[in-house]
Amino acid sequence: MVTLAPASTDTLPIVRSVEDLRAQVAAWRGQGGTVALVPTMGALHDGHLALIRRARELAGHVVASVFVNPTQFAPHEDFDRYPRDEAGDSAKLASAGCDLLYAPTVRGMYPEGFATAISVGGPAEGLCGAFRPQMFGGVALVVTKLFLQALPDVALFGEKDYQQLMVIRRFARDLDIPVRVEGLPTVREADGLAMSSRNAYLSAEERARAPELNRALVEAAEALSGGAESGAVLDTVRARLQGAGFGTIDYVELRDAETLEPVVRVDRPARLLAAAWMGKARLIDNVPVLPR
Amino acid sequence: MVTLAPASTDTLPIVRSVEDLRAQVAAWRGQGGTVALVPTMGALHDGHLALIRRARELAGHVVASVFVNPTQFAPHEDFDRYPRDEAGDSAKLASAGCDLLYAPTVRGMYPEGFATAISVGGPAEGLCGAFRPQMFGGVALVVTKLFLQALPDVALFGEKDYQQLMVIRRFARDLDIPVRVEGLPTVREADGLAMSSRNAYLSAEERARAPELNRALVEAAEALSGGAESGAVLDTVRARLQGAGFGTIDYVELRDAETLEPVVRVDRPARLLAAAWMGKARLIDNVPVLPR
């Protein structure tokens, strides 16, 4: 049994090895407890903390993991400069009611001789999967490991990374991982910008223009719900983003809400998703589109 | 809770869905029981039954799975003609002390929309991995599923498929699957031929010549243990196999016993492995080579 430092309002027990994690989870289970896991890459904001609060409602004990996972970044991406702040994260997690922070090392997760990879098709195809071909395989690998290390009853993810949520549901079901996957609505700033650790890359001027991404999607979703064909509506979104000072627009697409297959006219629950660059930040957002 | 038919000496309860499997395992666990899993493709012989008997020693309850897994066969391979005999398998399992047969359907294992794959490098490279590039990914996928469906304490595999055993150990460790993997020595016919479901493909004449594979490996292992360089020794094995009427020799190789990296002179535990065709049967065998 691992000995944990006592929790207070602003500190949190931390474990760094899978053995210590499993010992704590086993102790809780031995008392009949249930466990929720909230996997994160740290740099926590209110979106993450909403996951922690919901996890508290769903299970007796809440574990958050903080691990910036190298296998989901391509060499040219922002692994090295991705924001890291363990002390700040720990205080935020404690304040939201988290019971344990699991912060493994890269060497602990991927030791010498590591030789296994997971690939996902279906919902991982297209959208972010087309622009970041390394990402979902890396996500599948690290999330599978975290699930099997902690074996929680439930794991929570934000809908801000909607495609990721559908990919996680897919491989968790395909591999028979005995964990329930819950998605939570995106948490937004007052002006609609989806909370994201990468918003820290925005200058003040870029930050002021960034909410246009959400506004354009919300208005387009309204038109699509009313039965408009997607072609012209998506073109309008692209034009608005260009007009608002976005750089490269990776995609603006209408997809089936579950399979993520392309949708032209909304006759079943769909999702409108976009990714576009604002300065050095690649921003993503998505909104539901329900048939009326 | 699933209701199972009572076991007798020659019948065995069978479940075909993961829900029924998990219900039975949960019932055993609820009584404090431990569980062993023996994954097979059926067509059972004494090698499989040795795994069941050992499983009985290691755990309170023994589950055998019988599933001819399509994802580990290439289109030109013997998936369709692979021997199947559920009634015979069931009787043999019952007589060896198995408690439950899990025989899922292909559709149950790989439902519509299935989109996940696993790949393994390291020990999966070379040897059978070079000649059957589809196999170890398929093995990793189905064994991961079986492990996560049953969540046994221990799973048992024969050393006859030595590379497969090392691959399973590798991905189980890499993915943090909480199952102990045990390997058991190859069970052989009186003349040394490794027991295999594929021996059924041999004609009487081929069957009489097949034991030369094991004899050649055993004598070569003796020379290699004594410090001989592998080159000439492996050439001798190949010549003996050709002389005995084997057709294509896929490989004869000396490898590290754990990593399966190539070895030239035995200064640590090694393994001598071979695959060669006799008529329509691709026979594999391997023997340990310890430094003296």
UniProtKB/TrEMBL annotation, chains A, B:
The name this protein carries in UniProt is: Pantothenate synthetase
The protein's location, in the record's own words, is: Cytoplasm
- Which reaction is the catalytic activity of this chain? (R)-pantoate + beta-alanine + ATP = (R)-pantothenate + AMP + diphosphate + H(+)
The entry's beta-alanine-binding residues are: Q72
Give the originating organism: Azospirillum rugosum
Residue numbers annotated as active site: H48 (proton donor)
Instruction: Establish whether keyword Nucleotide-binding is in the entry.
Output: yes
Documented EC number(s): 6.3.2.1
Key words of the record: ATP-binding, Cytoplasm, Ligase, Nucleotide-binding, Pantothenate biosynthesis
InterPro entries per the UniProt record, alphabetical: Cyt_trans-like, Pantoate_ligase, Pantoate_ligase_C, Rossmann-like_a/b/a_fold
Which Gene Ontology molecular function entries are recorded, alphabetically? pantoate-beta-alanine ligase activity
| Chief location bin | cytoplasm
By sequence similarity, the record places it as follows: Belongs to the pantothenate synthetase family.
Other comment: The reaction proceeds by a bi uni uni bi ping pong mechanism.
Q: Which residues bind (R)-pantoate?
A: Q72, Q164
Its function? Catalyzes the condensation of pantoate with beta-alanine in an ATP-dependent reaction via a pantoyl-adenylate intermediate.
- Which gene name belongs to this protein? panC
Report the pathway entry.
Answer: Cofactor biosynthesis; (R)-pantothenate biosynthesis; (R)-pantothenate from (R)-pantoate and beta-alanine: step 1/1
